[in-house]
Design goal:
Helix content: 40-55%
InterPro entries: DNA_helicase_UvrD/REP, P-loop_NTPase, UvrD-like_ATP-bd
Radius of gyration: 32 Å
Protein name: UvrD-helicase domain-containing protein
Oligomer: single chain
Pfam families: UvrD-helicase
Keywords: ATP-binding, Helicase, Hydrolase, Nucleotide-binding
Number of helices: 29
GO molecular function: 3'-5' DNA helicase activity; ATP binding; DNA binding; hydrolase activity
Strand content: 15-25%
Shape: globular
Structural class: alpha/beta
Mean pLDDT: 83
């Protein structure tokens, strides 16, 4: 435990209070980093010792002892490497907070010396006497750093947030928790939270571990079981609170969540790239980050469907459509079996084969039903021919080469992606969609799957459909490797020499295929769909946008999981919220549910958010509108696109780059996206170009919103998507439009 007595004291009568306080904090941070270096050295020594344990040579009766030594070696090396990684990743901004509390300290008589000091950081660090120099932010003793308020100070006199650059303390901000500062307690700055809010944004999300507010901390430290839902309008910190919750759960119940894994799901690849820094910076790297287009192994896409196609593909009606297509047959399968077995003619026609297929599929997924199909074929053939020796006939049938060939063609292993592509056949699609989809809906999904064939890219909505088919078909089974005789192996070199005209050199043989297929259809089928992973916790951000089919996909990965779900109904792009709520409840499985609401907008300047709120209220009058807490005095700028829209866009983007020091985003509808693509990543990486749907969960210092009317027309969520776009800027926003607000269309 650290007390005020243990810390260096500020120089008496110093004119520069800030410099004096920073010197005190720097002395403690230096001590922490010295201990960190010693801990790093110890981790390296443990790794060396572990490797040494595996080098002892033992034979014969000492084999068990040798295996024990190898196990000890692996365990020591693993834990040492893990500790070393934790120390390395926490080097930046390790110590970020300090609490001064008025708890009495045993053995101290002076009131001024009875204050306890706790330093808060990204991980715990102790000195040689095992006294804490820094407390892990997730530890119960660190909770007052986040939960103390002037109304309920929890014994805290002063909360200080330290800003560090590496091991150097460069600033501090204080919050006083008592009506008057006790003697000797210096108060710095205007408050840590507001200082953090005015800083510029970067290409990746910053953690808020140093500025978590009390209501946010309640959600972070909520019980791990059941479903924790975090709601609130734009800029309320829902996403980053949820990510800090994931880190807290790993700390509080590491065995459960690390062994089972945590899946974090976001709306886009841009989103996952944006947040990927947060969890490692909090001490956790055992979390899987996935965009909705990356949930299924061997599939990765960021292509959006048209609103019409997305609405159909996400509907629960697709369950039955997928069931129908999964019961179908590939083109060209044999329609009858004709062969001789044990001297008897066997003929099974299409009616019998259909009956056998239906029987097997009632008990087995297709890909797991091959042996059941073989057995049922054999039993059926036996009844038809009346062979007197049942075992002899069944054995001959099972080993028959023509039966093997027939089964390979009649009951092939099916890739669920290939089955989905069967629906590019309009006749088959019409048959499967009969009674489920209307003509316009069939047109929309057929056009989307034809686009997939032409471009070699799936849509995000297709991923959930492939997952549905994968469950119905079962995992693909490895085909048995054909055994080769000794003679074949002995003469391999001779055969290759004859084929190549000389000695065989493997490096001279060109591969039969490229790792990146050129044919669009082949690109859709790269890799293999694996088994569904099952996680201990599933965190879903932008949950209001998930379709019912996507909820079913996530539900399969969280069958025994607890959940953290983040969303805002006013930002929803899904047209049927009732159907989505039904699917969501099914995915959760009736678990205990707790709700936390975030009502303060920390991201947007008030001027920007008021503009956005006025837009969304025109169509969503009951939208959850948070209160923005920061003002800049600069309202959003409105300008016209004019006759040369690209020149207008580039000019306004340059204006914003001069007005802010940080990041700027051009958010554009599809019609300008290709022409503006060259600007993406320019201005030393400060300028980004994005489509409206890819902005979900992201933020920039300034945004340039291009043609809001067109964004509304082309987006699934209409005005709700525009609301998202208008709430991405922290400090400046320019809106380029073909008409001014209030003008007639």
């Amino acid at each position: 435990m650290t007390t005020a007595h243990d810390l260096p004291q500020a120089p008496a009568g110093a004119d520069d209070a800030l410099a004096a306080e920073l010197a005190i904090e720097q002395a403690h941070v230096d001590r922490v980093y010295a201990e960190l270096d010693k801990a790093s050295q110890r981790a390296r020594l443990v790794a060396v010792e572990g490797l040494a344990r595996g080098r002892t040579e033992r034979t014969g009766e000492a084999r068990d002892e040798e295996l024990t030594g190898l196990f000890e070696r692996d365990a020591l090396v693993f834990h040492a490497a893990r500790r070393q990684h934790a120390l390395d990743t926490q080097y930046e901004g390790l110590v970020f907070g300090r609490l001064d509390l008025d708890h009495p300290v045993a053995g101290r008589d002076s009131e001024a010396l009875e204050r306890e000091v706790r330093y808060i950081g990204r991980l715990g660090v102790r000195d040689d006497d095992y006294e804490p120099l820094v407390m892990d932010w997730r530890a119960p003793a660190a909770a007052p750093f986040y939960r103390a308020t002037p109304v309920e100070p929890m014994g805290v006199l002063r909360r200080r947030v330290l800003r560090c650059r590496g091991p150097v303390v460069i600033g501090a901000e204080d919050d006083l928790m008592v009506p008057e500062a006790p003697d000797g307690l210096v108060i710095l700055g205007d408050g840590a939270l507001m200082a953090a809010l005015t800083r510029t944004r970067g290409a990746r999300m910053r953690d808020i571990v140093a500025t978590i507010q009390a209501h946010q901390d309640e959600a972070i430290r909520a019980p791990g079981r059941g479903v924790t839902e975090i709601t609130g309008g734009p800029g309320t910190g829902k996403t980053v609170v949820a990510l800090h919750r994931a880190a807290y759960l790993l700390y509080a119940d590491r065995r459960r969540y690390e062994s089972g894994g945590i899946l974090v799901v976001g709306p886009s690849a841009a989103y996952t790239a944006y947040i990927e820094r947060v969890l490692p910076s909090l001490g956790e790297d055992s979390v899987a980050l996935r965009a909705l287009g990356d949930i299924v192994d061997a599939m990765s896409t960021d292509r959006h469907d048209t609103p019409a196609a997305a609405a159909v593909k996400g509907s629960l009606r697709m369950r039955e459509l997928m069931a129908r297509v999964a019961r179908g047959l590939p083109d060209g399968v044999p329609t009858e079996l004709r062969t001789f077995v044990a001297g008897y003619a066997v003929r099974l026609d299409s009616t019998v084969l259909q009956r056998i297929r239906a029987h097997v599929l009632r008990q087995h997924p297709h890909n797991l039903g091959v042996e059941a199909a073989r057995q049922t074929l054999a039993e059926t053939a036996l009844r038809l021919v009346g062979h007197p020796d049942r075992d002899d006939f069944l054995g001959r049938f099972s080993d028959h080469i023509e039966v093997d060939a027939f089964l390979s063609a009649w009951w092939p292993q099916l890739d669920p992606r290939e089955v989905l592509l069967w629906l590019t056949d309009r006749q088959r699609l019409d048959a499967c969609a009969a009674g489920l989809l209307g003509p316009a809906e069939v047109d929309a999904v057929h056009a989307s799957w034809m686009e997939a064939l032409e471009t070699g890219t799936w849509s995000i909505a297709d991923v959930a459909l492939v997952d549905e088919l994968a469950v119905r078909l079962g995992p693909e089974q490895e085909q048995p490797v054909e055994e080769r005789g000794f003679f074949e192996i002995e003469n391999l070199d001779e055969l290759l020499e004859g084929a190549t005209g000389g000695s065989f050199r493997p490096e001279e043989v060109e591969p039969a295929y490229s790792t990146t297929p050129s044919d669009p259809r082949d690109r859709l089928l790269v890799g293999r769909i694996g088994r569904v992973a099952d996680y201990a916790h599933v965190l879903v951000d932008e949950a209001q946008d998930l379709s019912p089919m996507q909820w079913r996909m996530l539900g399969r990965r969280g069958r025994r999981a607890s959940w953290t779900v983040v969303g805002d109904a006013a930002q929803s792009a899904w047209p049927d919220p009732v159907e989505s709520l039904v699917a969501r409840a099914e995915a959760w499985g009736g678990q205990e549910h707790r709700l936390f609401h975030m009502g303060t907008n920390y991201r947007n300047a008030r001027e920007i958010f008021d503009y956005a709120a006025a837009v969304v209220r025109t169509e969503v009058p009951d939208a959850d509108i948070p209160e923005a807490v920061r003002e800049t005095g600069i309202p959003p700028r409105e300008a016209r696109l004019g006759e040369r829209p690209l020149e207008s866009i580039e000019a306004e983007a340059q204006r914003l780059l001069t007005e802010v020091d940080g990041s700027v985003a051009i958010i554009t509808p599809r019609r300008y996206a290709a022409a503006l693509a060259s600007l993406d990543g320019s201005a030393q990486g400060r300028l980004r170009v994005l489509d409206p749907l890819s902005t979900k969960g992201l933020e920039w210092d300034a945004t340039l919103v291009v043609d809001p009317d067109e964004i509304v027309r082309e987006s699934p969520g209409g005005i709700r998507t525009l609301y998202v776009v208008l709430t991405r800027a922290a400090h400046r926003m320019t809106v380029l439009q073909t008409r001014r607000r209030g003008d007639d269309h």
